[in-house]
Amino acid sequence: MNLSYFIAARYFRSKAKKNFITVLSRISMIGVAVGTMALVVVLSVFNGLEDLIKGLYASFDADLKVMPVLGKSFPVDEAFLSSLERMEGVAILTEVIEDNALVRYGDHQVVATLKGVSDNFLDQNRFENGQLVGEMSLGEAERPQAILGRGLSYFLLMDLDDEFELMQVFYPREPRAGSIDPSSMYNRELIRPAGIFSVEKQYDDEYVIVPLNFAASLLEYGNRRSALEIMVADGYSIQTVKRALRELLGPDFTVKDSDEQHASLLMTIRLEKLFVFLTLTFILAVASFNIFFSLSMLAIEKKKDIAVLISMGGTRRFIRSIFLKEGAIIAFSGALAGLILGFLICWVQDRFGLVSLGITSSVVDAYPVKMQWTDFLYTSLSVIVITMLASYRPARIAAKVNTTQHL
């Protein structure tokens, strides 16, 4: 065994009667353990929340979304759509018309996002991670049906069992010169509400899903579409298909994967995670002051031992290494205990869901967690850096002991 490590370990395990320094070292170790555990748990919760949001959005959004760079719509024809459907890796191509419209049901009305989709929209398990009520069907051409978000249904006081009350949808027309008839200023269509979905608050409060032909007629889009949504076939990489689509479509179109469709939200979560990591690391650094004080007091108490070691041929570098290793033992013992405790807490939460979100209508009952090895790595590196900084000054003080004064 390395001699400097042996001496450092003996100091750490000291059971002398005057054991205040030993107690302070144990407190330092506990502080590091608690800080490390908190880092692991909080970072894992942020990972779980990010995965939960991605899963909720993925149940509504497609793998890839094609949109125009300029404007809010673009023309399509059979040849154009066929060229995309024949691409390798493209499983399902869904045409989308999306715009704002006024929705009225009974005496209540609200401006909502009307999303017209082709018939294959519901063939993709779009709402598998959400909650569904009623009939998940867009009806037929003669009798179209709508599926709307839960937030909209609450605001409109929707009753799916009322077969006679239909939902009215209004969309403004371009003004016509010389016309004074108010009805000529907007299009109006009737549609039966068939189902209610709950995926994520943003979608629940805004979206009404309707058949593509219904939206094209109401919004007067004709052969224009606001987006094309593509589901990638099993066994194909989303990024590979995205690159191929960009090459085919050229600079007039943008192709976004699911993360890019919600880049601002995911960036916000990652920034919050970063700031929480920095905050807890700062708290861990404050806790490491105990290491600084315990090593400083140990250096004062062990001046005679240090003088003896130097007189026996020990170098200043050797003395420094003893106290650096003493600090490393304190910090690494605490860090290891913290990593293990953090892992166990996250595992128990993931397995049994002990800590609830406290929201009865939530998609998940308990806080989601997801452990990543990178979080364990960055936490360990933070502990190492903080430990070295906290131990360096006491180690230098110990190495400067005057031998002749303490023998």
Structure description:
With 407 residues, the chain is of the alpha+beta class. 50% of the residues lie in helices and 19% in strands. It has 13 helices and twelve strands. Strand 3 and strand 4 form a beta hairpin. Helix 10 (289-301) runs parallel beside helix 13. The radius of gyration is 32 Å and the shape is elongated.
Primary descriptors:
13 helices; 407 residues; alpha+beta; six-stranded mixed beta barrel; 50% helix; two-stranded antiparallel ribbon
Quantity of strands, as a count: 12
Largest sheet descriptor: 6 strands, mixed, barrel
Spatial separation of the terminal alpha carbons: 27 Å
Order of helices and strands: HHEEHEEEEHEEHEHEEHEHHHHHH
Strand and helix layout:
Layout: H1 3-12, H2 20-58, E1 64-68, E2 74-75, H3 78-85, E3 90-105, E4 108-117, E5 131-134, E6 145-149, H4 150-156, E7 167-172, E8 186-198, H5 201-204, E9 207-211, H6 212-219, E10 224-225, E11 227-232, H7 238-249, E12 253-257, H8 258-261, H9 263-287, H10 289-301, H11 303-311, H12 316-352, H13 373-399
Parallel strand pairs: 4-9, 6-8
Antiparallel strand pairs: 1-11, 1-12, 2-10, 3-4, 3-7, 3-11, 5-8, 6-9, 7-8
Gist of the model:
With 407 residues, the protein is an alpha+beta fold. It has helices spanning 3-12, 20-58, 78-85, 150-156, 201-204, 212-219, 238-249, 258-261, 263-287, 289-301, 303-311, 316-352, 373-399; strands spanning 64-68, 74-75, 90-105, 108-117, 131-134, 145-149, 167-172, 186-198, 207-211, 224-225, 227-232, 253-257.
